[in-house]
Amino acid sequence: MFSEFDLDLPTGRFQILLGPSGCGKTTLFNTLTGVTPKDAGTITWQGEPVPHLGGLCAYMHQKDLLLPWFSLMENALLPARTRGKDMAAAQDRAGQLFIRLGLGGYETHRPDQVSGGMRQRCALVRTLMFDRDLILLDEPLSALDAITRQQHQHLLLLLQTEFGKTILMITHDVDEALLLADDIFLLTSLPMTRFSRFSPEVPKPRAFDDPALLHTKAEILDHLKKAVYYEPGWLFCCGTGLPGAGYLGRRCSDMGGSGLRSAPPSLIGWVAITKAPVILPHASVTGAEICLGVLLALATAVPLAVAMFAKPVLEKALSPFLVASQAIPVFALAPLLVIWLGYGIASKVFMAWIIIFFPSP
After folding, report:
1. Model confidence pTM above 0.70
2. Better-predicted residue by pLDDT, 295 or 280
3. What's the CATH number of domain 14-56+132-226, 3.10.310.70, 3.40.47.10, 3.40.50.150, 3.40.50.300?
4. What sections of 162-275 are H helices per DSSP?
């Protein structure tokens, strides 16, 4: 997945990863936080080796992942509640953040009662409530429309300028990277590696039409167009110059200078075979977690079903709860499970158990 990938995160810097879709940016974040176990390499924090940064950073995903049955304030207070913090002090701080991010007066609203931009701002408040020095942002504004996205970019800048956070962010938007980043790293397709670094010297806040930024933008787009690397007989390219357009080409001898073509099934199979040493360990771990979840579900569901069949009174008592539970979006529980059980195997097995024990209608 990664080849000779090295990245330093200096305190207080806003760094952005810019590369083609599918090159492994989100996998990198999952590896850094311990969601995906690493099988090589070293992660250090303040000079000390650590297995991952799961308990040392806050991670904001592409989706807001707000719990639909909680109010915005209750969602924002989840980090404090699950970590046993002083709730009065936490609510006071969350209230200040709501006002600072333009959510004042909406504390009691549920996620389905507000706009996508407001939900994302609530997710940003929740991220700040973890009170971590390092924040990982995985395309946090990608789900917003262009106008709302531009309005929210200055909020991300506040994480650095006002809250003093160190930030590592993923984006496909060159303009967004130029507005926010101290350092922009351009990445190749699989195996992912850095091939260029840009550090705009323009003071923040920046304007889209700044001549220096426009010059840097032209350089970045030129690098993306020319970014190629070889792997015995095969050509991988960052695409046609559009950020996030990653393509896998045919054999170099078949290119004929006519541009890239979609990969044939034989090539996909070849990649799967040659990358088996990387794919199989992860597949075996995932398979083991699913099997454990199935066994746990069978061990609980079958005895419960037998007991309910044998005892009509028990069936009448439990059936309403089992039916009501199917109205809860199962995947909305994922953030809670990670907070409660951590990033290890327990949260994943428990999630598999929930999906099997409470199937969607």
Report:
1. no
2. 295
3. 3.40.50.300
4. 174-180, 211-226, 252-255, 265-274
